[in-house]
């Protein structure tokens, strides 16, 4: 698929509230978030921007905002590279994303995990690949 078509699909998936607010919560996420929120500092760094703030609406829908994520630990940036800059500023040493292209742009983070729920990506030697939140739990 070409970049133009991929960009159009991304815009629908992430920016159209009728679509973007429908995904279910990934099984196991609450258990990991409960543990992490009680034992470690944690942050959300998202490339989704105002004015739509769909990520916040989706987090609210699932009861994650403000319980786990809020104005103090959530940051919205413009580019993938901005995620790395924010990670440096926050002193992040472990990061999870579902896109290898994001993890590639975060060289400052020593422990990068690719969350691949559907097994869509080939094994990647640069990142630990996890297939579920339960799978990730053994690393924290």
Descriptive notes:
- The protein is 41% helix and 13% strand.
- The chain is of the alpha/beta class and 140 residues long.
- The chain has a single domain, classed as Rossmann fold.
- The strands form 2 sheets. It has a 3-stranded parallel beta sheet. Strands 1-2 form a two-stranded parallel sheet.
- Helix 6 (100-104) links the parallel strand 3 (94-97) and strand 4.
- The longest helix is centred in the first third of the chain and has 13 residues, at 3-15.
- The relative contact order is 0.14.
Rounded mean pLDDT is: 87
- End-to-end gap: 36 Å
Helix content: 40-55%
CATH superfamily: HAD superfamily/HAD-like
What is the alpha-carbon Rg in Å?
15 Å
As for the number of domains, it is 1
Query: Would you tell me the structural class of the helices and strands?
Result: alpha/beta
Largest sheet: 3 strands, parallel
CATH architectural designation: 3-Layer(aba) Sandwich
Low-confidence stretches: none
Secondary-structure element order, as H and E? Answer: HHHEHEHEHEEH
**Shape category:** globular
Given the structure, what is the number of helices? 7
The level-1 CATH class: Alpha Beta
> What is the number of strand segments?
5
Could you please say which CATH topology applies here? Rossmann fold
Instruction: Give the neighbour order of strands across the main sheet.
Output: 3-4-5
């Amino acid at each position: 698929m070409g970049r133009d078509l991929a960009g159009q699909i991304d815009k629908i998936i992430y920016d159209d509230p009728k679509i973007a607010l429908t995904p279910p919560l990934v099984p196991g996420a609450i258990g990991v978030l409960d543990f992490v929120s009680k034992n470690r500092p944690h942050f959300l760094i998202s490339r989704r921007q105002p004015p739509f703030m769909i990520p916040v609406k989706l987090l609210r829908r699932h009861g994650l905002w403000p319980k786990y994520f809020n104005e103090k630990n959530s940051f919205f940036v413009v580019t993938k590279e901005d995620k790395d800059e924010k990670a440096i500023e926050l002193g992040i040493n472990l990061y999870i994303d579902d896109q290898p292209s994001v993890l590639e742009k975060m060289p400052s983070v020593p422990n990068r995990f690719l969350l691949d729920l559907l097994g869509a990506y080939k094994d990647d030697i640069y990142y630990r690949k996890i297939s579920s939140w339960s799978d990730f739990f053994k690393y924290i």
